[in-house]
Design goal:
With 277 residues, the protein is of the alpha/beta class. The chain has twelve helices and nine strands. Helices cover 44% and strands 14% of the residues. The strands form two sheets. The protein has a five-stranded parallel sheet with strand order 4-3-1-2-9, with helices on both faces. The two termini are 31 Å apart. 47% of the residues are buried. The structure holds D-glutamic acid.
């Protein structure tokens, strides 16, 4: 255990902005009695349009800051920062549990017999070697279509997760990959996209299951199965803390502190709203 921390020390969670709140929500459901600090680096979002080195430097800076706040573990609630920085952060903080995320390619690839899977993620995540190796593992059991989602992070940051503006952005992104296609599953490979899950589901249903279409999924439904890494990441965090004997044993609900690098206070308001507190 890190010298300056104990069981009651907070779990730190960070992302390039509001996306990781979708992971914090699941972490709090799973481990309500833990204390949390959340850092959204909205001043530097989107990470997904930056270079590998820029994202690694940003993640290192944020991790240092969270450690100075006494975090007992760090959850990188960002697929992009995980692919660019997790290995490096683990190497320079060998005694710290660092939990990262990756697009939920594995459960999507196994969801039916050789499914066609859309992988929605940031341009940087899709370019990284880590992603190439991940999809290579499953290419015999599934076909993957990479969908870089330009503009989606910015829209979620601006507080829009549904409605006409969101729908028209999603149609612009998804139509070229989905109209007239047979798609079985979609992976939300960026934590921001989880906030827009309902809108994504609707646009996919509109594009893939027209009223005259006879297509049903394996359960007889006219929808695409959607996968994200939120629950897997929360469970892995619990497992790692348990293994290190660092779970908070308090029987009262823990606290949540949210910080954001942007001076725009609306981002903090949106963060609490997305967290439902
Ligand atoms: N939320 C992040 C992810 O999961 C990155 C968003 C961004 O591009 O800043 O990849």
């Amino acid at each position: 255990m890190n010298r300056k921390t104990d069981r009651t020390s907070p779990i730190a969670v960070f992302d390039s902005g509001l996306g990781g709140i979708s992971i914090l929500r699941v972490l709090r459901n799973l481990m309500p009695n833990e204390n949390y600090i959340y850092y959204g680096d909205s001043a530097n979002a989107p990470y997904g349009e930056k270079t590998h080195d820029e994202v690694r430097a940003a993640a290192e800076r944020v991790t240092k800051l969270l450690l100075s706040e006494g975090a007992k573990a760090v959850v990188i609630a960002c697929n992009t920062a995980t692919s660019a920085a997790a290995e490096y952060l683990r190497a320079i903080n060998p005694n710290l549990p660092i939990i990262g995320m990756e697009p939920a390619v594995k459960p999507a690839a196994c969801c039916s017999d050789h499914p066609t899977v859309l992988v929605m993620a940031t341009p940087l995540t899709l370019k990284e070697e880590k992603f190439r190796l991940l999809t290579k593992k499953y290419r015999d059991c599934a076909s993957f279509i990479d969908v870089p989602c330009h503009g989606l992070v910015e829209m979620v940051e601006s507080g829009v997760t549904s409605g006409n503006e969101m729908n028209s952005l999603l149609h612009g992104i998804l139509d070229p990959y989905t109209i007239g296609q047979k798609i079985d599953a979609a992976v939300l490979g960026c934590t921001h996209y989880i906030h827009a899950r309902a809108a994504i589901e609707n646009v996919l249903a509109e594009n893939l299951f027209s009223p005259e279409s006879e297509t049903f999924d394996s359960h007889g439904n006219k929808h695409v199965q959607i996968f994200d890494g939120a629950l897997g990441t929360a469970k892995e965090t619990e497992r790692r803390l348990n293994e290190a004997d660092m779970l908070n044993t308090s029987d009262t609900r823990g606290s949540v502190k949210i910080y954001n690098s942007s001076e725009d206070t609306a981002l903090l308001e949106r963060s609490y709203k997305l967290l439902n507190i």
